[in-house]
Design brief:
mainly beta, 471 residues, globular, 10 helices, 34% strand, 32 strands
Amino acid sequence: MRKTLALILAVMLVFGLCAVNASAADAVTITPDATVGGETITLTATGVDDEFTYFTGYGTSYALWFDHDGTFCFDKDVTLSYQGQVKAELTAGEVYKIADGYTEVYVALDDGTNLMILDKDDPGNFGPYPADTPLTEFPGTVSAGAPAAEEPAEEEPTEEPAEEQPAEEEPAEEQPAEEEPAEEQPAASEDAVVYVTISVAGEIVAPSVPVLVSDLNADGGFDVDEVLKCAHDQLYPGGAEAGYASSVGDWGLGMDMLWGDTSYAFSYYVNNTMAWGLSDPVQAGGSVYAYVYTDKEFYSDIYAYFDQTDAVTEDGTLTLTLFAGSFDENWDVVFAPCAGAIITCNGTATEYVTDENGQVTVTFDENGSYLISAVGADEYTILVPAICKVTVDKAAAPAEEPAPTEATIPDIDPGHAEGVTTYTVQEGDTIRSIAKAFYGTIFKWRWIYEANYESMTGTDMIYVGQVLQIP
């Protein structure tokens, strides 16, 4: 479960081990909502300068960016590590200076995430990540800060405990704010639709399928892990228990099995952007593409995508642009038009090839549903199969069009399309409960979703009084 950090501004403490000029508002106390050795730790720091970043690269969940002369201390003994190696043993209450080598290190929390300490002047491998997000946007709470007038009290050590009482009481006063995430959970944790694509060694097994995702860890949002668990529950024979697995290791939450494959040769993207970890957030209506590499030795598969995932053509022609990824000098994934790729239609190679701008115009002779993808021009170019689900609806076509194939929309039973009834949504209904009532299982909710797609606007959006088509 992803943990949040509660950030509470406190009055400046006396740091006897290092000379730092800072105002009372410069001291920030960070209390992770996680434990180390079974105990919650508190970090007090200066020089954070209202900047931080949040990501899950290399198993890191929270990274605090310090000015070069910033300081920090913990209220309990902790171990600083880097890439799995112990770098320093810190003593409780002792103040350490970021400029003295304590940078690009982390504290391993019990939940498998890490609290990273970074120097903005020397961030090491984390240079590509911007430290420009204000603390007020951090998932947690921030107090209004201690008044500057209390700074003189720092010169009277014997008086500090009594004079610090207002600041020490701030955490209790902030309790309602700290509980805000829990209060927001009911709205944020409502089931929502996310579009999931899965391919295994170049074979598309789930082409942008709408998956109803639940907030399984009750943290008020959705992440990649939850999306893939729900996708396997609804699409894979035997469900997530048979086809998907994840666990927390030295580098955080990792994938152990995807679509029944246990090779660990996996990767995944969110909205065509490379994800850093399974804890990356996913928004309702967003997309997740997870795949098993074809090349399990050198991992040379190239992620690719079309500029359209779903398209409708009324004249039988469609122009697409294919993009393929590569790494820049900072090892960030960048995309550019992909030339020379061979277009496939429903799994069969065609004569269509992308031009130097990555574009291709495909012509369809008959109405119907088609799954367009692309493969590399030669055996040395392995593309992760991009997808575009195409509906051809020519005006002059016969009134009865062929039903979508299972390759385009899996698990749709053609038999249910023959007879359609309606249902008026009642108080307390969900799309899952309606599916349970009509079909005897919640997992056939997508039959209802597909039949009412336009009125649901991409998410599980039903309302009392809404009339649904029940295929």
